[in-house]
Amino acid sequence: MLTVHAEIRDKKGKSFSRKLRIKNKFPGVIYGRNKMPISIILDHNLIFNLQKKPEFYKENLCLSIIDDKYIVKVQEIQRHAFKMKILHIDFIYIDI
Known about the structure:
By secondary structure, this protein is an alpha/beta fold. The protein is about 20% helix and about 50% strand. The chain has one domain (about 1-95): CATH 2.40.240.10.
């Protein structure tokens, strides 16, 4: 199981997301299973390299946020139209 480290995202909106992308990070969200959605910040280079592996999409991922660990699966990825950039990623909770 692949492990991905993330941070909690307090601010939201277009301008904050743009500032994140300048710092080589991008926003994401975890949702599903009647739980509150969690807005997160991910490192672009880490995710971009991991997403080249087939198990990134097929297997469950362990998302580590501070001291909490969530078992998730990739639901949707938004990519830039012509640049090799990820703009946003959605994860869905998986109950084991």
